[in-house]
Amino acid sequence: MSSSLENNNLEAIYESVKEHYSKQQTNEAKISNSCFLAKKPHNTIQKLLSLIPEKVNETFFGCGCPIPLGIKDLTVLDLGSGSGRDVFLAAALVGDQGKVIGIDMTKKQVELAKSSTLEFVENCKKVNLKVGSIEFHEGLIEELVTLLPSESVDLVASNCVINLSPRKEKCLQQVYNVLKYGGEFVFSDIYSDRKIHPIALQQLSKLGSCIGTVFYINDFLSVCRKLGFHVREVNRVELAASSQDLQQMLVGQAKFYSITYRLFKLKNLEMAEENYGHIVTYKGTLEGYPVIYKFDSELEFEKNLPVNVSGNVASVLEESEYLHKHFSILPNNRELHFGEFEIKHKNKDTNNIEKVVFQVPTCCSK
C-alpha cells in the first residue's frame, strides 16, 4: 500500500515538472534568461551562442553554463537538455569526431530540440565549424542505463536539473554508471546550508521548482562519496532574498547557493587527500586557457609553474580523457607517501562568496 502511494507521489512530481517545462516552451509561463551565476561564460561560449537558433535561446533556463572547453572528440551527455542549447554548444566544441546526447523528460522540449538541429548545423557550416553527431532522447535521468550503455560517456553536464528529481541519489548513481573511468560530471544547481522542513519546502516551491526541491550541501556530498565520486567545487554564489517577506519564506537564517561542481569517476580514488609528492605543470595548451587554468575554487595552474597536488588531483589529471594531455605529472607512481596533503593553494577570493538577489522570475521560476 505504502509502495503504491509512494509511486503515485513520484508520478505526480514528474507530471508536474513536465507540465511546467511544457508551458515554458509554449510561453504559457513567463520565461526569464536571468541566471543565478553572475559570471559570464567564457568568450568562446559567448561566440557560439550566436549560432544557436533563436527559439532555442528563448526557451533556455538554467543556473549556469557547465560545458567546459577543450573537449574535442569526446562523447558528451547533457541531462535535462530541454530545447537543446547546451547540447548544441557541446556539439560545436567536440568537433566532427565527437558525439553529444541530450536527454529530457518533456516531449515538447525534445521535439523542439530535434526540429532545431538542422538550423544549428547549417549555421555552423556558414562559419566553417564542424560539429559532432547530435542525438535527443525522451527519458528520465533515473533510468539512464535503459538508454545508454554503462561506461560509454566521457563527460556529463546538467544545468539546474538534478534538484528537480525526487530521487536525486538515483540520478547520481545512474550518472556514475554511464561515465567511463576518468570521466567527469560537471553541473550547476541550487543547494542549502541546512536541511529544510518539508512544509517549508512546499512554500519555497511556489518561488521556483529548483528552490522547492533544494539539496542540502552535506547530504549531497555524502551521496557523492558513497557512490565513489571525487568532488571539486568550482563556483558558489549566495542567493540573497529581495525582500524581508521573502527572507522569512526562505526559512530564517538558512542560506541558499547556486553551486557548480565537478564530480570525477576515478580508478585510483582515495577517501582522503594524500601527499605522494606529485608535482604538476600546466602546458598552457588547453583551449581558451593559454596562461591560467582554474581547476576549481581552490586550485589554479599557471603555465610552466610546477604545483604540488594531492594524489586525487593527480589521478584526475592522469585519467581524464581531455585533461591528461595538457599536464606533465611527476612522479608517475605512489611509491613514497608523505602523509595527509595540506592545501596551500587557496585563491585569495575563496572566502568572499558572491551574492545575487533572488527574486521571481528566475531561471527556474514557475
UniProtKB/TrEMBL annotation:
Q: Which GO terms describe its molecular function?
A: arsenite methyltransferase activity
Matching entries from SUPFAM superfamilies are given as: S-adenosyl-L-methionine-dependent methyltransferases
Q: Which residue ranges run through the membrane?
A: none
- Annotated Pfam families: Methyltransf_31 (PF13847)
Q: Does the keyword ATP-binding apply?
A: no
Annotated EC: 2.1.1.137
Question: Which terms are listed as keywords in the entry?
Answer: S-adenosyl-L-methionine, Transferase
UniProt superkingdom: Eukaryota
Enzyme class comes to transferase
- The reply to whether Cytoplasm figures as a keyword in the UniProt entry is no
The reaction(s) annotated as catalysed by this protein in its Swiss-Prot or TrEMBL entry are:
arsenic triglutathione + 3 [thioredoxin]-dithiol + 3 S-adenosyl-L-methionine = trimethylarsine + 3 [thioredoxin]-disulfide + 3 glutathione + 3 S-adenosyl-L-homocysteine + 3 H(+); arsenic triglutathione + 2 [thioredoxin]-dithiol + 2 S-adenosyl-L-methionine + H2O = dimethylarsinous acid + 2 [thioredoxin]-disulfide + 3 glutathione + 2 S-adenosyl-L-homocysteine + 2 H(+); arsenic triglutathione + [thioredoxin]-dithiol + S-adenosyl-L-methionine + 2 H2O = methylarsonous acid + [thioredoxin]-disulfide + 3 glutathione + S-adenosyl-L-homocysteine + H(+)
What is this protein's name? Arsenite methyltransferase
Q: Which organism is it from?
A: Naegleria fowleri
